[in-house]
Amino acid sequence: MSVLPDELWRSIMEIGIETKTLDYRNMCCLSITCRRLRRLAAEDSLWSPLLLSDFPSTTNNLKSSDADRIIGRDSNYASTSNSSGKAKNLYQIRYEKDREKKRLAHRRAVLRIESEIAECLRKIREIKLQCLEEKKKMNEAVAELLNLRRIRQASVALNVWQPEMIRSRQREMVQQTNVPVDVRINALEMEVSLCKQQIAAFDCAIRFQRKRHRTAEEKLDSVKYHPFRDLHSSGCRVRSKRLKDTLD
């Protein structure tokens, strides 16, 4: 390595950057191998193409003179400060800003999905309460309907001969009703039918909200998934388990 001149190493790295073989990760890895490559890997002539390709909006926001200096168009500046590392520093600043922007966007996406999950759970609870109220209303209507049907049977039974004790009880049941029995029975039957339809609609809405909830949870797991972090945590658990088994 010490036999090759700096110009050759610089040309090799420039070719690697032009052919997309080397990126910022490779340049950082090269810079920690030795002092010579650390000095060469910090030159503006190498980081300027990376800055242009990875963050084209950065150079558009700069002044023309600054852009010429960064991308190496000013030959005097390139010859005097070829290893100043301004392009690398600018790349680092732009990379950190872009990473923070992505982190905030990821956080917003997570919060949006979590709010969607909370909204689904709230709607499920609300629909369940409405369904319980509708079932309670239907049970009351069914109980009243059964009572009215017994009263109608009692009124029909008054037309035939029966023992006086049974007849007096049936007459008392009929006299307690203040509304026409047949009209009220028809109204209650219609009300029970409507309650059943409403309960079926509530059940369908609950299934739909649960499906949305499952989809949102799967989406949240996908957004939160980080392979290296999960691998590291699982590796730590495996190592701790092995250590515990060894100690035991």
Automatic annotation (TrEMBL):
- Which segments constitute the F-box domain? 2-49
Domain of life of the source: Eukaryota
InterPro entries of this UniProt entry? F-box-like_dom_sf, F-box_dom
Name the chain's protein. Answer: F-box protein SKIP24-like isoform X2
